[in-house]
Amino acid sequence: MRRSKRFLSLVAGFVAVTGFWGCGSGGSQVAGGESASSGQNLTFGELSVRAANVNPPVYSSGVGTSATGLTGKISSVDVRSLASDIKSTYIAFTRRFNGDQIYVAGADGSNETPIVVGTHPSWSPDGSMIAFESKANGKRGISVVNSDGSNETRITNNNATDEDPVWSPDGTKIAFTSNRDAGTDGNLEIYVMSADGSNQTRLTNNRFIDQQPAWSPDSAKIAFVSNRDGDQEIYVMNADGSSQRRLTERAGADIQPAWSPAANIAYTQLGDTPAEIGIMTPNGVKLSGFRKRNVPLAEPSWSPDGRQIVCSGNVDIARVLYVGSSDGTDVQLLTPLNFGFFQGDSVQPCWSSFRMRLPVVGVSGRMGNAATGFIYATGNHRPASVVSWNNSDFTALKLTALGGQNSTSDALIYSVEGGTAPITLTRLAYWNFTTPKATLVTSATTISGALIYIDAWTGFVNSVIPFNAPSRSVGKPSVKRENGAIVARGSFAGVWSAEGKNLAPQGAYAVRLDSRTGKVLGIETGGSR
């Protein structure tokens, strides 16, 4: 149990955002421990795993590198952006000039591209689609479109006004505002529907205006704006509309809520001079502010890492976009002023997630449709490499971090092998994310296990050495430190490099490796150990 508690505490430091939904929404799921129930989702850093009957994990750290290993019936492994950098994300916004049009630009404001006619963009969780407010035949409703502007589809169609769409964290629902129930009070109310437009359901029901919904990171709650207590304030409710309660109680109006990945809420504070961005906890406790001298700010949206906020701001006669750190520092202009003066205002910004999930294991996975184990490594907190393998009986499979070889100065070394009974690895593959595809380890002889060496600084897999051994107690390779290097001896079926080349296709009995990187320094073939 001591190892399990240590594992949980270490992983907590590396768990990152695994999704980002709508504007100002995001979240993560964390799981760990000795076992996982059937079909449970696990998240480690930017890795998302769906697994059943998971055996105890192996976790270790090197200098700037973390590696997590699991064995079990693994149905899917996804990773987020290969370069989990804000530079790989996008900002959608509305440009108001000769009609409203939605644009998409890089997170630094570069490469602005018109996507579709409409307003109020909201990204889908995987970044592949945008929900937005459209106007067809004079009717304002909700539509969706691919992020490249293709396949525009209207998903609400009535004589009312439907607006303010925002995608739910799991991607299955869209919350929005509508005044369709004119037979009762005719005011704007909060609704929710399936992402395809079906199952449209009313959540709020009173004679006041309820609008501007925003999902919480876990999709369990929705923040919204209401004037039911005299002026516009921010409220929160459960995703089914129950337990509605007020969060803000200022004399001025509080509008446009946006949830952060850490579950805090940014919002626009009116009544001050100038207007600014407020930040509070989910319980309404005020945190820091976000302001720009002499510039009214509004419409906040969080970056997917929760460190920055993009918003709109008034400058003279133009509205442009600003971005700054979430603590209110370093607020910088994102769109050039001449766009506002000569090409219309830039408003309603919405920051995308990191790039779409990339299947590694599972349907169309780069490393196979299933696995009974994997190792996932990060270097400097960025995705670096994945190793996966398969065999007929996952219960006999063992994954261990070799003792004494996982210090802060040595390569991270793992052994994949059978337990007391012999096993055969039916598939073994590895992938450094700097290369375009995974390497499948193949051999003319039976592979019953493998030694895997990961660079202690970069997280890259620098060598994979498959071997054949009857069991953990018979024929297992030895790994020792000799003359400043690491030397592995055994009956090896090949020696695979970081570049995916088999350096010993005829086999080897000794391999000398760099003690920090795990790169191959020399190979001895023939003979025995």
Q: The biggest beta sheet, please?
A: 9 strands, antiparallel
Q: How big is the Rg?
A: 27 Å
- Give unreliable regions as ranges: 1-21, 24-38
DSSP E strands, number? 42
Sheet-strand content, in percent, reads over 45%
Question: How far apart lie the N and C ends?
Answer: 37 Å
Oligomer: single chain
Mean pLDDT: 83
Number of helices: 2
What is the global morphology?
elongated
Kindly state the percentage of residues in helix. under 10%
SS class: mainly beta
Tell me about this structure:
By secondary structure, the protein is mostly beta strands. 3% of the residues lie in helices and 47% in strands. The protein is built from two helices and 42 strands. The strands form nine sheets. Strands 1, 2, 3, 4, 29, 30, 31, 34 and 35 form a nine-stranded antiparallel β-sheet that branches. The longest helix is centred in the first third of the chain and has 11 residues, at 2-12. It is elongated and about 85 Å long.
